[in-house]
Amino acid sequence: GKRYKQNTHGGGVRDPLIVSWPNGIDPAVQGQMRDQFHHVIDLTPSIFEVLGVEAPDTVKGVAQQPIEGTSLAYTFAPEADDSGVVPTRKASQYFEMNGHRAIWADGWKAVCFHVDGNHIDDDVWELYHLDEDFSECNDLAQAEPDRLRQMVDLFWAEAGRYGVLPIQPRMASLFGGHRTPGTPRDRNTYLYYPPVPRIPADAAPQFGSRSWELTADLERPTADTAGVLIAVGTVNNGLSLYVDVDGHLVYDHNAFMNHTIIRSERPIPTGAVTVGLRQDRVKRGPARVRLLVGDPNGGAANGEVIGEGIIPMVPIMISSIGFDIGTNPTGVSDAYQAPFPFTGRISRLEVATTPALSPDEEVALEVLAAERTQ
Question: Which of 122, 155, 234, 374 could be bridged to 103 by S-S, CB 3.0 to 4.6 A?
Fold first, then answer.
């Protein structure tokens, strides 16, 4: 189906269901497929039915919400005959997630993708006959405007009935990198003395939602000392800073498999050396990246720029996979074979984060950069 997680198109809401119940399902139909439309809210009433349990009205004196699903236990029985298809007992099903909406009824589905910043009334609804178009490829909104209007009206009726209203798109607030007091992320500076194990994402620096600056004190005994310095995420989405086999410092920013590669103009020195990376991002926009080299006494923060570039778009949420130092077992970049451990020594690594720049701050930064080059 279309789209992905957090959407109400098929790619975001459709999953297979496998039921194993050797003592309860007729052996003659075990292993058969069933195509009736159902929703995850139908699982609880299905289990209650097969167990012969009635949902209580109250639990420990607390009134319970009604069971709103439709049992699918009837699908465990044999079909009427080899060609007969038992219709679903489901009447309709609404979907809503972060402003994306959909309604299914009688084999048809109306769905809309909410455009960030749009008023919800400006979103465009699509119409699909799911019984004949499983993957939502043939949009019939123009061909069947009356049916679409009825479906959209049904969505609003169901949304009112089941407490969906008001619809409040909250993607930015949900994935905006909140800093909760008392948690590992309630700080601006992170200091590590490797070796350290993988750091969980919730305790790692906010590489997506904030600007950040990394300083790493290295020991490179030889010119071919190479490997990953830091890595976050996976081949799907993440970032990796590494020293390649030629000694260049390389940053691979992998935004959902759109790779931005920034490589130093020359190899970094051998021996004791300090390298850095500064990423200044605009809120909901691009980021400027600078690769730096300094010395162990002066640090990299004010070091020499040896590479720079622009990342077109930085995802707020980089990955739920954790943060690795000195290795990349999850393989963010296809430029090396994971885990590509650093063959030298990382004696100290610091990451300092600051809030993302506003557009006005970005303009000021551009002016300052221009003045420095004059």
Answer: 155
Per the DSSP assignment, residues forming a β-bridge with 357 are 282
CB 357 within 8 A of CB 366: no
What tokens appear for 95 in the block? 């979907």
- Own/partner pairs for 252-256, CB < 8 Å, 24+ apart? 252/332, 252/333, 252/335, 253/287, 253/289, 253/311, 253/314, 254/332, 254/333, 255/311, 255/312, 255/313, 255/314, 255/315, 256/315
- Sequence letter at residue 38: H
Please compute, for residue 323, the number of CA atoms within 13 A of its CA located in the half-sphere on the CB side.
Answer: 19
- 10 Å CB burial of residue 132 (0-12, 13-18, 19+) is exposed
pLDDT in tens, the chain (374 residues): 788 888 999 999 998 899 999 988 888 888 888 889 999 999 999 999 999 999 999 999 999 999 999 999 999 988 765 556 788 999 999 999 989 999 999 999 999 999 888 888 999 999 999 999 999 999 999 999 999 999 999 999 999 999 999 988 766 555 555 667 777 778 899 999 999 999 999 899 999 989 999 999 999 999 999 999 999 999 999 999 999 999 999 999 999 999 999 999 999 999 999 999 999 998 878 899 999 998 666 666 668 999 999 999 898 888 888 999 999 999 999 999 999 999 999 999 999 999 887 766 655 555 455 555 54
Nearest-5° angle of CA 236, CA 99, CA 254? 15
> How far apart are alpha carbons 139 and 121 in whole angstroms?
19
Sign of the dihedral defined by the CA atoms of residues 12, 323, 356, 367, in that order: negative
What tokens does 173 get? 């607030």
pTM exceeding the 0.70 threshold for the entire prediction: no
Helices (H), the chain: 10-13, 43-51, 145-161, 171-174, 359-373
Burial classification of residue 106, based on how many CB atoms lie within 10 Å of its CB (0-12 exposed, 13-18 middle, 19 or more buried): middle
**CA 318/CA 206 separation, integer angstroms:** 8
125-129 and 108-112 beta bridge pairing: antiparallel
